[in-house]
Amino acid sequence: MKNIVILISGRGSNMEAVVRAAEAEQWPARIAAVISNRADAKGLEFAAARGIPTAVVPNKEYPTREAFDAALQAVIDGFAPDLVVLAGFMRILTPGFVEHYAGRMLNIHPSLLPLFPGLHTHEAALAAGHAEHGATVHFVTAELDHGPMVDQARVAVLPGDTPETLAQRLLVQEHILYPRAIRWFIEDKLTVENGQVYGPHRPHDSALS
Ligand code: GAR
């Protein structure tokens, strides 16, 4: 059994999709804990109701990013994670923290990376006039929203789309994309060589149309 620790900051719908998939598909893994930097993160309620251990490490109580990341790391490591899953965890991570989980920390970002790293990705895709938008699952490296790509999901941008309608349509795909990618990791189907992921999908081969 592998241990998965999931970090959230808010709604936690991707975390919920992962928890449901792990149960329904009987992954050889357990969700060891759901941890948030915010006590009011809605997703904590879902996790607690499922009997999953939860913890809060409030970033506001730490004077520096380094101090926060050190406290967070101590809590995460208490659950002996094989994989750390960032699911809407809205904190910039320090290089030391990222290095500690190198090769065992995944993130989902709501854009077709390398397009639109950072915040407000749906607004950016609309402003750019792109016909397609998407989400990317990647291994976490020190540079924000970079790191070897595991897989991407794409959605069409429709006439009349707002950031909200686009985000909602994409979220449905995120809930398929992320559990599938995490399952590949759990099943040892992903290898990283020279910054590229080799596995069931190789998104670096697919250019944005
Ligand atoms: C998701 O759309 C995820 O891709 C995005 O935040 C949302 C969290 O929703 N992540 C980022 O923007 C990370 N830079 P959720 O809490 O319902 O899973």
From TrEMBL:
Chain residues that bind N(1)-(5-phospho-beta-D-ribosyl)glycinamide: G12, S13, N14
EC category: transferase
Keywords assigned by UniProt?
Purine biosynthesis, Transferase
Source taxon at top rank? Bacteria
UniProt-listed InterPro entries:
Formyl_transf_N, Formyl_transf_N_sf, GART, GART_AS
Residues forming the Formyl transferase N-terminal domain are 2-182
Entry's SUPFAM superfamilies? Formyltransferase
Q: Which reaction does it catalyse?
A: N(1)-(5-phospho-beta-D-ribosyl)glycinamide + (6R)-10-formyltetrahydrofolate = N(2)-formyl-N(1)-(5-phospho-beta-D-ribosyl)glycinamide + (6S)-5,6,7,8-tetrahydrofolate + H(+)
Q: Where is this site: Raises pKa of active site His?
A: D145
Q: Under which EC number(s) is this enzyme classified?
A: 2.1.2.2
Which residues carry out catalysis?
H109
- What GO annotations for molecular function exist for this entry? phosphoribosylglycinamide formyltransferase activity
Amino acids binding (6R)-10-formyltetrahydrofolate: R65, M90, R91, I92, L93, N107
UniProt pathway annotation:
Purine metabolism; IMP biosynthesis via de novo pathway; N(2)-formyl-N(1)-(5-phospho-D-ribosyl)glycinamide from N(1)-(5-phospho-D-ribosyl)glycinamide (10-formyl THF route): step 1/1
HAMAP family found in the cross-reference section: PurN
Q: Which family does it belong to?
A: Belongs to the GART family.
The free-text function statement in the UniProt record for this protein reads: Catalyzes the transfer of a formyl group from 10-formyltetrahydrofolate to 5-phospho-ribosyl-glycinamide (GAR), producing 5-phospho-ribosyl-N-formylglycinamide (FGAR) and tetrahydrofolate.
What is the protein name stated in its UniProt record?
Phosphoribosylglycinamide formyltransferase
